[in-house]
Amino acid sequence: MKFFTDLFPVVLFFATYWLSRDMFIATGVAIVATTLLVGWTWLRHRKVDTMQWVSLGLIVVLGGATLLLHDKHFIMWKPTVLYWVMGAGLLISDFLGKNGLKLMMGQQLQLPAPVWRKLTWAWVGFFAFMGALNLFVAYRFSEDVWVNFKLFGGLGLMLAFVIAQSLFLSKYIEEKK
């Protein structure tokens, strides 16, 4: 459920863009939607995940710069910065001897330490790739193509990567009887 609520501002951005064909209106909607989502999460749970705070900060700063400077490139950088921040967080935690993925998922999944490390490095590589790919699409293709890639391409690649990770991890998961 959390995944779908986190995706809500992206869907509103996409829908607004395709209804208005205006990146600036869509950016304003995304800023408001993300702010409302974080506010609602805080009121409901009295806690907001770190990544939601990071996402809110990025949408306010980069979306605000887009609106203030009337330059669409700032909002186009947001997915890249978010991907790279997530990858850097995993990388730094690994260098500090704390596996970020294990800290987040260790209750649901029991894996040997080397597998946690491989998984972490796979995600670091994926986030680096996704950030670079977002910039490639943003600067090499039309605005319409970038908006579609932001929703469908990013989600599709994430889904394919998660499926690949699941297949890799399946040999480590024991069925409970």
TrEMBL record:
<comment type="similarity">
    <text>Belongs to the YciB family.</text>
</comment>
<keyword id="KW-0472">Membrane</keyword>
<feature type="transmembrane region" description="Helical">
    <location>
        <begin position="151"/>
        <end position="169"/>
    </location>
</feature>
<comment type="function">
    <text>Plays a role in cell envelope biogenesis, maintenance of cell envelope integrity and membrane homeostasis.</text>
</comment>
<keyword id="KW-1133">Transmembrane helix</keyword>
<protein>
    <recommendedName>
        <fullName>Inner membrane-spanning protein YciB</fullName>
    </recommendedName>
</protein>
<dbReference type="InterPro" id="IPR006008">
    <property type="entry name" value="YciB"/>
</dbReference>
<keyword id="KW-0997">Cell inner membrane</keyword>
<keyword id="KW-0812">Transmembrane</keyword>
<dbReference type="Pfam" id="PF04279">
    <property type="entry name" value="IspA"/>
</dbReference>
<feature type="transmembrane region" description="Helical">
    <location>
        <begin position="23"/>
        <end position="43"/>
    </location>
</feature>
<feature type="transmembrane region" description="Helical">
    <location>
        <begin position="50"/>
        <end position="69"/>
    </location>
</feature>
<keyword id="KW-1003">Cell membrane</keyword>
<feature type="transmembrane region" description="Helical">
    <location>
        <begin position="81"/>
        <end position="98"/>
    </location>
</feature>
<feature type="transmembrane region" description="Helical">
    <location>
        <begin position="119"/>
        <end position="139"/>
    </location>
</feature>
